[in-house]
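Reference record
================
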Amino acid sequence: MSSEAPRTGPAGPAAPGPGALLLCRAAPGSVAPAAHLLRERLLLSGAGEDWSVLVPEGRPWLHDGEPVDRVMTGWATALAVAGPWPVLALWWDADRAGFTLASGFRRPVGYVWLANGTPAGEDEAMRTFATRLGLDPVLDLQALEQLTRADPEADSRARLRTLLAVLTRAGIALPDGLAPGEPTDRLREAATALADTRAVDRPGLREAVRTELDAVGSSRLAPWMPWSGTPRSRALALAQLAAGLPLTVWGVRRRSGGWVAAGVLLLGHGMTGLAYELMRPRD
């Protein structure tokens, strides 16, 4: 996947600090409860019709030494599990830039460019990306495929800007100042200045459980939820436990807070499902 691409290539004459953005295909009011589950300090704002943007504080890559792409992939996966909408993570550092799209329990798809704009991903990823977002299979896909070809005039950040230009047809419109390539502190300043920005702080355990229930209770996933008592909810709980434990262990070994968050979220869903099943009265 994109996070395993080699970190090589020139960084350019003036490479800013790392940064990242999370784009969710849902209104801010729907995203806020799920975003609490990451237990990170985030700023949330609208990003076009039916889209929201989350601006992270950046502690894992600014202070803990974690690769920004690995953290963002984990966070995007966690949010996509918590809500019935896709999540697009944009990230960049001194060596590379790229994106990851997470949608439900499907394997995330992404692409990477070296700092000088050299493509370092798989062409098939762009086709999968376009399909999952429901983009035009002709016009939009042609524009995306151009990003997989060499272009000496475009560096990695220019590639991300071109990607966002294509995604305007899917409704994405980033607010002023939230541009790919900007360092984390500058992104936070720009987000703070927006009139509709709200802060998403780390909740306590009780608040985290409550916001998790709020995030999924009224969604299309209701038949799969623990309290539904359906065969699908039981199967899902077991699958979440089976996937969450190795994912959490892998994240701990890699010291990746993003993947740990995704694994813990899966474990939490799975244990909640089994607890409901054990406590539910039998006919």
Notes: Residues 231-253 form the longest helix (23 residues). The CA atoms of residues 177 and 186 lie 8 Å apart. The chain is about 45% helix and 15% strand.
